[in-house]
Amino acid sequence: MASVRVVIVDDQVPFRRAAQAVVESTDEFIVVGAVETAEQCLAEVDSLNPDLILMDVNLPGIDGVEASRRLRISHPAMVVILLSSYDQAEFADLTQDCGAAAYLPKSMFGPDRLEETWSAITSSRSGSGTSGISAVTTRPAPN
Questions:
Q1: How many domains, the chain?
Q2: CATH code where residue 58 lies
Q3: Which of 6, 30, 44, 89 is the residue whose CA sits 20 to 30 A from 16?
């Protein structure tokens, strides 16, 4: 399997660093960029050429939801996973509306969840026979 190229978009430096550590500790995933705003992501997406964008929902300026909508139009094959500290129920419906493939609470973001979510997204895409983005519902792991 070829490496999955990842861009991290979050306005908080500590979370960007934590997300980078998660991605780098996940087999076959590499960070090709980490930016603070959706505007930076949109401006650099062509040169970074990611397969996956990990996008915070709440960003200054253009938020993650609007950035996902724009990416769905300009780069329909690119996968966006929305991340936020807010409850999953608040954003689960937004994923389909904005073209994001999934929503993950930041508290659940780790190597296993990243691999699991990526696998579900790629299986969904290959099984559907289309290049459109499908929503993947992620649920908290049982206690």
A1: 1
A2: 3.40.50.2300
A3: 89
